[in-house]
Design goal:
Blueprint (H helix, E strand, L loop, with lengths): L14 H20 L18 H26 L8 H17 L4 H23 L4 H21 L11 E2 L15 H24 L1 H11 L1 H6 L4 H27 L1 E2 L6 H14 L4 H22 L2 H4 L3 H7 L2 H15 L3 H18 L21
Length: 381
């Protein structure tokens, strides 16, 4: 018996398009979750098979940096805040959890709750001060706070952070399944879960009333103020949410790396996050993820290329620059900025639009002027 056809003009369930859009991301997450159980490899990209600890270490690092890039996307892509101090909150998660586990007997989950609360307080205090100014002044104030945090970590006046040597993970309060190379598979799943949760929270924030207001503030703060909005409060809320998520990612990073290093508190690290977001496309969630994954893979794998025999045998004019991974990363970044405006996400959007136009033969639909990264401008209702 044939299934009845829907009556023309009958309303379509709103769940149907939602479920169809969710099918792809859910399948992708399921595939990524199964990678530690599979024997897949990508020569030149992955160091080995996907079940090997070295490969899982690289992939897990990719997921954590992607989650961190998403938190910066909330600042730059959603509310339009250029911060040079976002690494401070990531470092607060790394060092905060390391210190609590090292000097107390609190188990992992309660310790993480304490550190998360501290991250909220830190972000609220610094955000309330920094957001009194705008533009480059805001960026400089956040940089000053981040530099102060880095000095405290490196100088270690309270004898807590280990100074330049960093601080190893105290394993007494950590479950055995999250310790050691033999449990890299479990740590990989933790990193993937952090990315998924961060993405869902970011999506929820963007689609909430606060997210819409933040987008409006990014486009025209004066207009928001004229119609009775409170741009300062909106920016502060998004600032605290982004910093809190970065703190949570930092705690997962500590477990994954089994230690804290002063490098995570530097302004250079914030600039690295900024490069990831710009590389993927400002204003695009999946662009931030792709940019972070691409940057991390290049950063890890170009070091191997720089020390290879193939590069060593080149003339000095080529060998010297190619033996420096940062030179190669900088070159890639310059090429993307010059030839892919809007980053990888912007290029993909233009390619998809070109394919659509060729299939339909119609003119491009105009839905409003585009924001950076291919996002439509916020509309004040």
């Amino acid at each position: 018996m044939n299934a009845p056809h829907p009556t023309p003009g009958a309303p379509v369930s709103p769940l149907r398009p939602t479920l169809s859009r969710m099918a792809g991301p859910v399948a992708a997450v399921a595939l990524l979750a199964c990678l530690p159980l599979l024997a897949l490899t990508v020569p030149g990209v992955l160091p080995g098979y996907t079940y090997e600890p070295g490969t899982l270490q690289l992939l897990g690092l990719c997921w954590l940096t992607a989650a961190l890039a998403l938190t910066y996307h909330l600042l730059l892509g959603v509310v339009g805040l250029l911060s040079f101090g976002h690494a401070l909150y990531f470092a607060a998660g790394v060092y905060g959890l390391a210190v609590v586990l090292e000097y107390t007997d609190i188990p992992l989950l309660p310790a993480a709750a304490v550190v998360l609360a501290g991250g909220v307080l830190l972000a609220g205090t610094i955000g309330a001060i920094s957001l009194r100014v705008t533009g480059i002044s805001f960026a400089m104030v956040t940089l000053a706070f981040a530099q102060a945090g880095n000095v405290l970590v490196r100088r270690d006046p309270a004898d807590l952070t280990g100074g330049e040597e960093g601080l190893a993970l105290a394993t007494a309060g950590v479950p055995d399944g999250l310790i050691g190379v033999v449990n890299t598979r479990n740590l990989y799943w933790v990193a993937l879960a952090v990315l998924v949760v961060t993405y869902l929270v970011t999506l929820w924030i963007e689609r909430s009333r606060a997210g819409h207001m933040a987008a409006a503030v990014r486009e025209n703060e004066v207009r928001v103020r004229i119609i009775g909005g409170r741009p300062y409060v909106v920016k502060l809320v998004v600032f605290i949410l982004a910093a809190t998520l970065a703190t949570a990612v930092g705690m997962a990073y500590l477990l994954f790396q089994s230690g804290a290093s002063p490098a995570v508190s530097t302004a250079d690290f914030t600039l690295t996050i900024l490069v990831m977001v710009v590389l993927g496309g400002v204003g695009s969630r999946w662009g931030a993820i792709v940019g972070a994954v691409l940057y991390t893979v290049l950063d890890q794998r170009l070091s191997e290329l720089a020390g290879s025999e193939a590069v060593a045998g080149l003339p000095a004019v080529l060998r010297v620059p190619l033996s420096e991974p940062m030179f190669l990363l900088g070159t890639c970044f310059i090429l993307v900025v010059m030839f892919l405006p809007g980053g990888i996400a912007g290029a993909a959007s233009r390619a998809a639009e070109h394919v659509r136009r060729r299939r339909t033969g119609g003119p491009r639909e105009r839905t409003g002027s585009a924001a950076p990264g291919g996002r439509p401008e916020a509309v004040l209702s």
